[in-house]
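[Q] Does anyone have a clean structure-token version of this?
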Amino acid sequence: MAIAVGLVTLLAPSGWVARGLFALGLIAAPADFPALVYDGYGIGIILAYVVKEAPFVAVVSTALLLRLDEEYLSVARTLGASSWQQFRHVTWPLIAPGVASAALMVFAFVFAAFDTPFLLGRPYPSMLSVVAQRRYLSIELADRPVAVAMALIMTALAASVVWAYVRMPGSSLGRERPAVF
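[A] Here you go.
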């Protein structure tokens, strides 16, 4: 939520960036600043999640790179592999399972998140989590079962993606199938 509020403070038409560009004379009015939050394309939401989740994926990738055995790269260099070939044929296959797992966690989190789309998104169209919350809080009691059904469908969809990932053949990323389920 702090990132969402920070992006509103920075990137809204009345935000610091718009005011700074106006003060520098680069735009005629702060309202001329392009809509990066509350826009129909969700640019603010996407930017918030990139700022929020990129460090998580970077930490996972760094941890995987630190436990990477230097002998693999040494053998690749001995066999004449370029830096790109070392990454593509040695490093990436060894870190891909961890990066894919981190991406799966980010997907599940972003798919079900409510706060950032609620703060940075437009009222219509909205993300499913925001629609479900609005339906649940509606004064029409008939909307509550619809909201619960939406939440259950979102849960089933996220679980299906996780199940598909776990059942994915090991050859697709050069890894063995994890023993989660």
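[Q] Thanks! Anything notable?
[A] Residues 35-172 form a domain with the MetI-like fold fold (CATH 1.10.3720.10).
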